[in-house]
Design brief:
The protein is α/β, with parallel strands linked by helices and 271 residues long. 39% of the residues lie in helices and 14% in strands. The structure holds 3-methyl-2-oxobutanoic acid and sodium ion (NA). Keywords: Cytoplasm, Magnesium, Metal-binding, Methyltransferase, Pantothenate biosynthesis, Transferase.
């Protein structure tokens, strides 16, 4: 496989091939995921919960994201997957200048794209970064860094008004230059509308139905090692495969052939 580029990922989407993404936090799993054929890896701030034991992503620091980005980037040496890293809570909210400094730290650690959460005020940050050569992935719907403001981990955009706001935010972010956009925990119809409104945008769904350009899952969730109640959109690929390598390959195959996510079992409807 050739190393993925923004160009190759956009071309993949343009020809109708699904884009696969999985979270990775260390060199070993990054290497395994790359060998299994993942198109993109995300150093997610979900590591705050899965690796550090916090009950939200809010405590994760930029230094910690830099450390894990370095680990994953080393694991990907000689590999192909495109590397996205999360800007953690508090590292981009103050000003475009703060966002740029934080993005630079992640890029210098090996990220090829940075991800930031939210709509509206974030368009300014996205344009500032994109103009300065930083590819940006937006993130709308359930944005875990805002869990306290949102009143918990709940489905977003269920009624017509909030769905319209989501669509407007997505359009603004795409216009600001976001090349990719995670759509988390929203009715399938809303995610489909966002994709239809912005045909060139590489939307990556998680609990957002089958009509996005690609899919992402959290590594520990799809391997079945996350403790506690899992959201319904998760599928345990380890239960089907005989090994971690096999589970990763099955995930890639299921996203590519459209059998994951299931349009009913793994999805949400508008109210
Ligand atoms: O941190 C993370 O794992 C994420 C994905 C769920 C998209 O942001
Ligand atoms: Na995240």
């Amino acid at each position: 496989r050739k190393p993925a580029t923004l160009h190759s990922l956009r071309a993949m989407h343009a020809r109708g091939e699904k884009v696969t993404m999985l979270t990775a936090y260390d060199a070993t799993f990054a290497r395994l995921a790359d060998e299994a054929g993942l198109d993109t890896l995300l150093v997610g701030d979900s590591l705050g919960m899965l690796l550090q034991g916090y009950n939200s992503t809010i405590p994760v620091s930029l230094d910690e994201m830099v450390y894990h980005t370095r680990c994953v980037a080393r694991g990907l040496q000689g590999g192909s997957a495109w590397l996205v890293s999360d800007l953690p809570f508090g590292s981009y909210q103050q000003s475009p200048a703060q966002a740029m400094a934080s993005a630079a730290a992640l890029m210098q650690a090996g990220a090829q794209m940075v991800k930031l959460e939210g709509g509206g005020w974030t368009a300014e940050m996205v344009r500032f970064l994109v103009d300065r050569g930083v590819p940006v992935c937006a993130h709308l719907g359930l944005t875990p860094q805002s869990v306290h403001a949102l009143g918990g981990y709940r489905v977003q955009g269920r009624d017509a008004d909030s769905a319209a706001v989501l669509r407007r935010h997505a359009r603004e972010l795409a216009d600001a230059g976001a090349a990719m956009m995670v759509l988390e925990l929203m009715p399938s119809s809303v995610a489909a509308d966002v994709q239809a409104d912005n045909p060139g945008l590489v939307t990556i769904g998680i609990g957002a139905g089958p009509d996005t350009a690609g899919q992402v899952l959290v590594l520990h969730d799809m391997l079945g090692v996350t403790r506690g109640k899992l959201p319904r959109f998760v599928r345990n690929f380890m239960a089907e495969g005989g090994s971690i390598e096999d589970a990763l390959r099955r995930y890639v195959a299921a996203v590519k052939d459209g059998s994951f996510p299931d349009p009913v079992a793994h999805a949400y409807a508008a109210s």
